[in-house]
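Bumping my old thread because nobody answered last time. Still need a sequence for this structure:
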């Protein structure tokens, strides 16, 4: 098959991109031709198909909108792209006209690309499969959170709630843009033209069905990583680890409080990752310093083999999210390395941590988090046992073969429907 994969980034960045490059490699090994569709960035992996990529509103060097100093014209372009990108639609139409394409697989297209490309696919009768990494289709803030509490007002009332409560960075304009984009997408019923939705967690699948999406279009398919790239290590170098995005919804402040409760023993904690909001990270560091919280080391952003070695040599992993995290790749990768996980009993993380692979703790409960961390600090045999269980669980439920078998079945079903 010839498959287009659409994602707003075509370079290693976070979990969705790690998944994207893994599935591209798997598809190519199965004889498929993969055509990327993305946004022009200087960090992109070179590809002959970059001629179809969308121009970024703030220039190719800007990855985060917060790093830009935009003109009014650029702001208006971002606003338009959030709602319906005519450029993305035009470029996708050209791609589909110039290449034989059997299916389009959409990952993350918010803001830069927009769902306008779905209409382009419909015009060419090309089936569309969409993988959901968050709640962006039903929630203005992407996380189903408002004032750091679970919220579904965009579903139960209307998307204008995002504007009313300034859910995007407490700023009226981006919140208004998100509200209008959701209103327009709902009015156009654009997601009716998606043939299948892939949900990495059953929690996400259930949430969308409860929001009114047709159950028959939703499939729960676990994420995966290549086990050959994640050789398990049932020993360790004596530190607990959080790795991933550093932002409030990931619960880092509760992790820091839990670390404080551990006391003065030898309980090193490494925190690895880049901050969405640098001010949040600085606030966390200030708390650590002013309250003299011991044994916390901030290692900054790491990637590739360097990150893998840090994870592989950890004692256990902590995933203290305070929102319904979908199915974070960090947890999948931790299981692959044979690492016990202490994570929040919320969303996809609760699905990922099986019995005997770690501990699930109530969200925002630093005391419970600290207690379970201490259990793993004080019991070497349990760490080794849970580590082996974690690897076994990974091999049974998160293998590339299982993921691709399910995905290929869905792809073929959608292609046959359009023939």
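Sorry it took so long. Here it is:
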């Amino acid at each position: 098959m010839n498959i287009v994969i659409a994602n707003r980034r075509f370079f290693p960045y976070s979990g969705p991109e790690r998944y994207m490059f893994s599935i591209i490699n798997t598809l190519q090994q199965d004889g498929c031709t993969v055509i990327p569709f993305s946004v022009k960035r200087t960090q992109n992996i070179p590809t002959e198909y970059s001629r179809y990529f969308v121009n970024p509103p703030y220039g190719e060097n800007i990855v985060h909108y917060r790093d830009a100093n935009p003109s009014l014209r650029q702001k208006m372009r971002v606003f338009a792209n959030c709602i319906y990108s005519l450029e993305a639609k035009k470029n996708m139409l050209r791609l589909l006209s110039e290449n034989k394409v059997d299916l389009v697989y959409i990952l993350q297209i918010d803001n830069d690309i927009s769902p306008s490309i779905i209409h382009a696919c419909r015009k060419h009768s090309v089936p569309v499969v969409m993988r959901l990494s968050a709640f962006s289709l039903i929630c203005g803030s992407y996380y189903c959170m408002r004032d750091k509490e679970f919220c579904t007002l965009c579903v139960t009332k209307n998307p204008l709630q995002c504007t009313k409560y300034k859910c995007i960075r407490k700023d009226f304009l981006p919140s208004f843009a998100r509200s209008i984009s959701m209103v327009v997408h709902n009015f156009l019923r654009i997601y009716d033209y998606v043939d299948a939705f892939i949900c990495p967690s059953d929690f996400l699948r259930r949430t969308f069905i409860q929001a009114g999406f047709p159950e028959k279009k939703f499939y729960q398919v676990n994420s995966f990583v290549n086990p050959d790239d994640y050789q398990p290590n049932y020993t360790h170098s004596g530190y607990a680890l959080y790795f991933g995005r550093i932002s409030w919804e990931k619960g880092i402040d509760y992790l820091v409080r839990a670390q404080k409760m551990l006391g003065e023993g030898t309980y090193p904690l490494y925190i690895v990752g880049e901050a969405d909001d640098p001010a949040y990270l600085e606030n966390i560091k200030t708390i650590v310093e002013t309250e003299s919280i011991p044994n916390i080391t901030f290692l900054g952003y790491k990637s590739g083999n360097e990150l893998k070695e840090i994870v592989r040599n950890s004692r256990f992993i902590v995933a203290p999210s305070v929102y319904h995290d979908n199915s974070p790749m960090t947890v999948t990768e931790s299981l692959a390395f044979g690492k016990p996980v202490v994570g929040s009993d919320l969303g996809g993380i609760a699905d990922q941590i099986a019995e005997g692979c770690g501990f699930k703790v109530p969200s925002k409960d630093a005391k419970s988090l600290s207690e379970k961390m201490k259990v793993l600090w004080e019991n070497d045999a349990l760490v080794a046992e849970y580590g082996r269980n974690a690897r076994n669980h990974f091999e049974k439920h998160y293998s590339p073969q299982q993921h691709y078998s399910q995905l290929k079945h869905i792809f073929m079903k959608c292609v046959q429907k359009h023939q």
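The radius of gyration is 21 Å. Let me know if any region looks off to you.
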